[in-house]
Give the backbone structure.
Amino acid sequence: FIVYRGIAKGLEKLAKIAAPILFVCSSVLLFRVLSLDGIMNGLGKMWNPDWNALAKADVWVAAAGQIFFSLSVGFGIVLVFTSYLTENDDVTLSGLTAASLNEFVEIVFGGMITIPVWFLFLAGSSSDFSTFSLGFTALPAIFSQMPFGNIFAGIWFTTLFIAAITSSVTD
């Protein structure tokens, strides 16, 4: 339905509604995470890397996969959307704004919510540190241990749903 309505009436309208909701939900969740007891240990684990991991081949394979995605599919999506810019749009400013906001959301909301909480509650014990296991296995277990965890689980899954809808529409 969103794609059928086109760029202006479909995608832009979705983005104008979904992006602020995503930002608010993520902000509430981030505030709650940063107020947990012992969260500094989790933040320390996130911001103090294990340099020995660079000697592992699977780390390099995962990094190459991320780069491949970013430079192929992600770059293709950017090219498609730039075709809708008008002559009065500043391409450099639009690109810088999109890249900066994307990195802000990934690092601040994605990283500072999931990784420190995963470490704090599960002590990094999950053998499968994939996106799926973190989002759908570890975090629900964490929410069950938090005061008002059901509310924050609802916010988390609403945020994931909105992110999935906005991402799938661009593909």
Q: What stands out?
A: The radius of gyration is 18 Å. The chain has a mean pLDDT of 76. Residues 91-122 form the longest helix (32 residues). DSSP finds six helices and no strands in the chain.
